[in-house]
Design a protein that fits this description.
This protein has helices at residues 3-16, 25-43, 48-52, 58-82, 86-100, 103-106. It is mainly alpha-helical.
Length: 121
């Protein structure tokens, strides 16, 4: 299935339940943030090593998959309501990031683009 197929399924799901009245950009953005928070909660207090192994436990792995699916569903729904082509937006943003983070300056560093090339930071 394509992103558009999933957006159509989500739109139909909302329409069948008369939920489109609640799917304002504000409400969808808030729901997206809430679901991202629920995903984050699964990683809270884990060490980096534990977070890398989170999918090893089947029950926790299922929770991670479900929260990621919730985040994606709200992201797709928000983009649909705002009539944003997510693939085009991602392509545009990747092009911008390639300019902001040239390989020769950004490779191997977590510095923000405005700090690249500053050796004493």
């Amino acid at each position: 299935m394509t992103l558009e197929d999933f957006q159509r399924r989500l739109r139909d799901f909302a329409d069948e339940r008369d939920w489109q009245q609640f799917h304002t950009p504000k409400n969808l953005a808030m729901a997206l943030a809430g679901e991202a928070g629920e995903l984050l909660e699964l990683f809270q207090w884990l060490t980096p090593e534990q977070s890398s192994q989170i999918m090893a436990d089947p029950a926790t792995g299922e929770k991670v998959r479900h929260e990621l699916a919730d985040v994606l569903a709200y992201l797709l729904r928000l983009a649909d309501v705002l009539e944003i082509d997510l693939m085009a937006a991602l392509d545009e943003k990747m092009t911008l990031n390639a300019t902001k983070y040239p390989v020769e300056l950004a490779k191997g560093t977590a510095r923000k683009y405005d700090q690249l090339g500053q050796e004493d930071l």
